[in-house]
Amino acid sequence: MSLLDKFRRMEKYEKYALIVIILGILLRFSLASVHHASGDACWQFSNAIYLAENNRFPLFEFFGRDEPFWAPPFFHILTALVYKIFSAFGKEIAGFAIKMITPLLGSLTLITFFLISKILFDKKTAFYALLFFTFIPLSIDYSVFSYVDGTITFLAALSVYLALKNRIILSAIAAGLTILTKYNGFFILPVLLFIIFKNYNGKKYLLKNILIISILPTLIGSIWFIRNWIYLGNPVWPFMNTIFNGYEAKTFAEAGVGAINPSNIFSLSGLAAFYLGIFGVPDGNISTLSFLQLPYLNILFGIWLLSTFIFFIPLVTGVASKKLNHKNLLYVWIGSYIILVLLYVINSSWSVTRFMLPAVPAVALIWAHGLERIKHGKIRKLLIMLILLIIAGFISTSFAKISIAAASWNSYNDDFKWAKSNTAKNAIFMTGSQCISYNIERQTVSPIKENIEKADYIFVNQKFRLDNRAKLNNDIINELNNKKIGIVYENQKTGTKVYRIS
Questions:
Q1: Distance CA 351, CA 343 (A)
Q2: What is the b/e burial string over 185-209, where b = at least 16 CB atoms within 10 angstroms of the residue's CB?
């Protein structure tokens, strides 16, 4: 039987779901192919490439952050392996290959989520849920950006799917790798324990399976917690550092990370940032999009904001429904990650929307149920048409946002190439930008006056729009002028200068 014949024999909503999955995969790889690494992805890549080139984990090698390498390393190990394999074809090919890891895992997440949905609900609901999960901007972004959140979401979804299929040991291993990818991985365990309790309550092997899910992932993840305790004095560094009295990093201390501040929960601006983050605003901070420089931006933002409210109407209907199947499982799933968000908020800030990504599958299922609960035929058809139109808008804005950002980064290529070609591989630059460090492939010291003598070069661009941390404070600029430190490179077009410290 040909693939076309198999497709024709499929049930209607399975056909729709397959089309959505294919479109979702094409969207993710298309966006990733033009995407330029930015934000935290630069730091993740720098550390992974260091691992690939030196065959050991970094520790106090600084890549645009005044902090040691502390992050659970599964994503970095995977990235380092891919980089090593493709380095045989050149650095550019290797760099492109590692950008494809996240869209690959994001594509696998779509498939895994649809399988979960079919276990819990009928195929129609599964299709609607897939529509939400595939095209919500939060899911699109972190299936493209090379943050670890795309990896943790795939592993969390895989662990849930395996638990639902009663593959308990495999589920526990997937959960362990989730923890070894990010501390947040622990928060999938309550979901797995709920599934086991529901499936095995009053049956044989209940206690055994609870112990497997509780102990095996913890053992896998504990490898890195022990390492951080030994080297940094805090198993979950930099979080709760005031409790553990671990290694102090100035940038974290100044940002308040590690200190406990419950009042952060009641920040209205923080809640707004959280909402904006769901719909694709980086870190929920609208000022991060200032580089777009689009005409009528305020009007476009108003239309976009109204669209997000319309898109969420089925979620409100779903939450209000009393006939939601597997309600307790879905609320445990969402509730576990809400607790995670609140813990992070009181320890840092509200820039945490992406932390909810592993729980978005549960939100998608409630949204899909809500869409089905709208019984008035004409209203539901109108709403579906609006949702499809809004999805087209989400896709368009994703392409615009990522393409413009990539072009903006590429405009600095001459500056980055000069630094790579004209400075020693072990040269130390002063910059506060993790992405400048990544692009020039050099380690850094933080931009404070005391570090001037520790640097070999200082990267200066006071007009740098893509990362405010690249801009130096006036004290350092004045110090450079007072000491008459020489400029060895200047690009008047971009505004970049490089000073060499004698």
A1: 12
A2: bbbbbbbbbbbbeeebeeeeeeeeb
The helix or strand, by DSSP H or E, that contains position 459, with its residue range, turns out to be: strand 457-460
Q: Which residue, chain included where needed, has tokens 């420089």? A: 293
Q: Which of 438, 448, 444, 429 lies closest to 488 in space, CA to CA?
A: 429
DSSP 8-state code for residue 452:
G
Q: Residue 481: is it exposed, middle or buried by C-beta count within 10 angstroms (0-12/13-18/19+)? A: exposed
**CA distances in angstroms from 247 to 87, 226, 236, 274, 444, listed in the order given:** 35, 15, 11, 30, 19
Closest CA to 150 of 112, 120, 114, 117: 112
Q: What is the DSSP string of 364-385?
A: HHHHHHHHHH---HHHHHHHHH
Nearest one of 143, 148, 153 to 26, comparing CA atoms = 143
Predicted pLDDT of residue 150: 96
Using the 8-state DSSP alphabet, how is residue 57 labeled? -
**Can you give the length of the chain in residues?**
502
pLDDT band at 315 (very low <50, low <70, confident <90, very high): very high
Structure tokens at 389: 């139109």
* Helical packing angle, 12-34 and 377-410, nearest 10°: 20
Whether 63 has a pLDDT exceeding 80, the answer reads yes
**Burial group, residue 211, by CB count within 10 angstroms (0-12, 13-18, 19+):** exposed
Find where tokens 């008047």 sit: 492
Identify each DSSP E strand in 289-350 by its residue range. Answer: none
pLDDT tens-digit profile of 407-426?
Answer: 999 999 999 999 999 999 99
Q: Rounded distance, CA 145 to CA 103, Å?
A: 8
> How many whole angstroms separate alpha carbon 489 and alpha carbon 117?
56
CA angle 497, 500, 502 (to 5 degrees): 160
Residues 131-190 have pLDDT tens digits of: 999 999 999 999 999 999 999 999 999 999 999 999 999 999 999 999 999 999 999 999
Provide the terminal-to-terminal Cα distance of the chain, rounded to the nearest Å: 73
Residues 6+ apart with CB under 8 A from 419: 429, 440, 442, 457, 459, 489, 498
Task: Mention every residue, 6+ apart, whose C-beta is less than 8 A from residue 12.
Answer: none
